[in-house]
Amino acid sequence: MISKFLNIFRQNKKQFVKYFIIGVSAFVLDLSLLYIFKEYFHLRPVIAVIINQALMLNYVFFLNKRWSFGAEGATHKQMIRYYILSGANYFFSILWMYVFNEYFLVNYLIARTMNIALAVSWNFVLYKFWVYR
Asked: Could you state, in order of their start, the residue ranges of all structural domains in the chain?
């Protein structure tokens, strides 16, 4: 199972590099906005993530659609699949922040970084074979 998963990455290096570049830019923007919402607007980290995730969705969708996966047409169908996946990721992000920050007292930026690192792997595969197919 793991070797099959790794083969997907090896066979799609160019796409993965583009996906990774978008992901890094999204990561920087994500953490920057999270920090601003928490430190300057004094929101609880879990509330900051709720707002932040909503802003990041379209940024990631359109860059990946055009640049990483070169997907044409059927934007509305792709968006529906993307938002289903994003909804699952959104719920997972909120739960992750709640558990790690509020229950285990892990710094909110570290908790968010761990969450993003975990989501990167499964998202590439799902984007390639389900969202942008």
From this structure: 2-131
**SS in 3 state form for the chain?**
CHHHHHHHHHHCHHHHHHHHHHHHHHHHHHHHHHHHHHHCCCCCHHHHHHHHHHHHHHHHHHHHHHHHCCCCCCHHHHHHHHHHHHHHHHHHHHHHHHHHHHHCCCCHHHHHHHHHHHHHHHHHHHHHHHHCC
**Cβ atoms within 10 Å, residue 72:** 10
Q: What is the pTM of this model?
A: 0.73
pLDDT number for residue 72: 86
pLDDT tens by residue, 28-51: 999 999 999 999 999 999 899 889
Q: What is the dihedral of CA 58, 40, 23, 74, to 10 degrees?
A: 0
Percent of the chain with pLDDT over 90: 64
| Cα gap 102→59, rounded to integer Å | 28
